[in-house]
Design a protein that fits this description.
The structure is a homodimer of 353-residue chains. Chain A has 353 residues and is an alpha/beta fold. Chain A has two domains: 124 residues, Aspartate Aminotransferase, domain 1; 219 residues, Aspartate Aminotransferase, domain 2, CATH 3.40.640. Chain A is built from eleven helices and 13 strands. Chain A is globular and about 55 Å long.
């Protein structure tokens, strides 16, 4: 610790993402990356980019990304915000809309970065327990909340809320801002984006890290009414004028516009997820229904940390969380069919002792 | 404005960077970009990068950048921090070290993003007037300041403080954190980086946007004692785990390690700056001494905004600032020799009326 750290800096407990192994070769099912490469159009676009132009600052508004997103979702460009990964977009949203005078609520089991943002910006928050089956219990969110944030499908459980249910919440609580983190929406869920034109209390956050296979390029999006987007732009322009580099911008455009490739790869992942779920259930493994690119599983008679270690010994990385309520569960990313065949075989061996 | 904006969001006045023209072709001398392309090694590295790997998250620590910087400056890796452009690095530094209980000071004429960061994080600040000749007047910084921040060479004036003077300040004020923003240090100045091993109250901030010609890739650095760097990492990991995408990381490494190209291009820029300064002075234009890749000039009898417009009409973009003290001055980036020959000719014409 340095004597120059501010009080807030001293009190932080940063978010810890899944391991990125450097040495040994693992089947990496621990950070919800896409097992397929990005669209060939992304590669073509980067390979054809005039790299001399990197001497110039990027387009400040991320204009070409916004155009591509507006076209894909059929919404106006002014309802789109682009940032350096959805982590940055979420952080800027917390800073833009909340402060130490406003309380926010989120499920006790959800993306564990939300309480970290609250600590960073000194925003009071309440964690509302999910139900026994891990679904979000919307009846217990206090009327005093300025914001409610959740991932849909939720992480790490995979549980899903339909836009109908969300629309009811938006109507019931017009003075609460809902931030719906749709990082995993493209694996079978239905997006809330069509609701943004009707409700000014909805911000939808997306990422190109999962369904577009661009985790390495850090591209996140937010979509909402133009006043919410303007707020994000104000804060962004007070933090970092150019968060999106030029190669990320052209890659994002190419990825978003290649609908065919997007549909093909996410369909493959959905099919592999369903296959894996069936096979694991046949073994007697508890598997939550999932609309995401991961499964939430519990192996009977083996603790979460123990299962993680045994899988690691066999060359498979998965994720386990220390929170007692879910400590016996593993979050396992859907890889290729071959990856998952090996996973199922390995879990079978582990269960046989 | 949205009713969901926080009070702080409502009160922000974001930083406005220089224009990035989209339509017409200009000689762009308004944002201090490098007139030469990035090192050929950067291009080679990006062209040879296995783009399929973009499906994976980047190295979280920016390890290869830190190694390259450590090698270049002969300092330990743990004394290096890498972020998404020096704007992000500076923003994170303000958040890490200061808060609403601590006052910071900076020159009234300097990088105009500093007061914007203070507004974003509600950090009290004082602007201390520069001297008549635009040099920084260190005698008037109050003893109550937790931090003193300035650009060296300073922007937009080009004035420069030697490391000897900075070392005296570090000794005199051991409880004040000095953040020295060396965005322009590679154009003839001497860096303070060697001082970080001796003083725990010095953070030096660099960018790859200027002397390394990578403005399009957003790479910034901070160097300081390991406790200062640890503080930055804590805050970064509470904001955005992966601010540096994979292509930016490999490009940064290639650029930093190509010392030959770096020395050749900055030498050309220095020579062109000296030539331009001499030619403009011969015309009777007031030109500040500059150790940066820009000149701060005032054309007799023509106001700053008027001069900017006249140059724009002739196809040259420069920068003017509204602050009364410097409103009659222009900041003109050093371009290629041909760019500057055209600039000198154009100013000559404008002065002839």
């Amino acid at each position: 610790m340095s004597r120059f750290w501010s009080k807030n800096t001293k009190n932080l407990t940063p978010y810890v993402p899944g391991e990125q192994p450097k040495d040994r070769k693992f089947i990496k099912l621990n950070t919800n990356e896409n097992p397929y490469p990005p669209s060939p159009r992304v590669k073509e676009r980067i390979q054809n980019f005039k790299l001399d132009d990197l001497r110039l600052y990027p387009n400040i508004e991320g204009a070409i990304i916004k155009q591509a997103v507006a076209k894909h979702y059929d919404i106006p460009e002014r309802q789109v915000f682009a940032g350096n990964g959805s982590d940055e977009v979420l952080a800027l949203a917390f800073k833009t809309f909340f402060d130490n005078t406003t309380k926010v609520g989120f499920p006790d089991v959800t993306y564990s970065f939300y309480p970290v943002y609250c600590a960073l910006y000194e925003i009071p928050f309440v964690k509302v327990p999910v139900k026994e089956n891990f679904s979000i219990d919307f009846t217990h969110y206090g009327k005093d909340l300025k914001g409610i944030i959740f991932a849909n499908p939720n992480a790490p459980t995979g549980s899903y809320v339909s836009p109908d249910v969300i629309e009811e919440l938006l109507k019931e609580r017009p003075d609460t801002l809902f931030i719906v983190d749709e990082a995993y929406i493209d694996f079978g869920g239905e997006s809330c984006v069509p609701l943004i034109s009707m409700y000014d209390n909805l911000l939808v956050v997306h990422t190109l890290s999962k369904s577009r296979a661009l985790a390495g390029l850090r591209i996140g999006l937010a979509m909402g009414c133009k006043e919410l987007i303007e707020g994000l732009v104000r804060v962004k322009d007070s933090f970092n004028s150019y968060p999106l580099d030029t190669l990320a911008q052209v890659a994002a455009e190419a990825a978003i516009l290649d609908t065919q490739y997007f549909n093909d790869t996410r369909q493959k992942i959905i099919e592999t997820r369903e296959w894996t779920q069936r096979k694991l259930r046949e073994l007697g493994v508890k598997v939550q229904d999932s609309m995401a690119n991961f499964l939430f599983v519990s192996i009977p008679g083996i603790s979460g940390p123990e299962a993680l270690l045994k899988l690691r010994e066999q060359g498979i990385l998965v994720r386990n969380f220390s929170m007692p309520k879910i400590s016996d569960w593993l979050r396992i990313t859907i890889g290729t069919k071959e990856d998952m065949e090996f996973l199922v075989q390995t879990i079978k061996k582990i269960m046989a002792g």
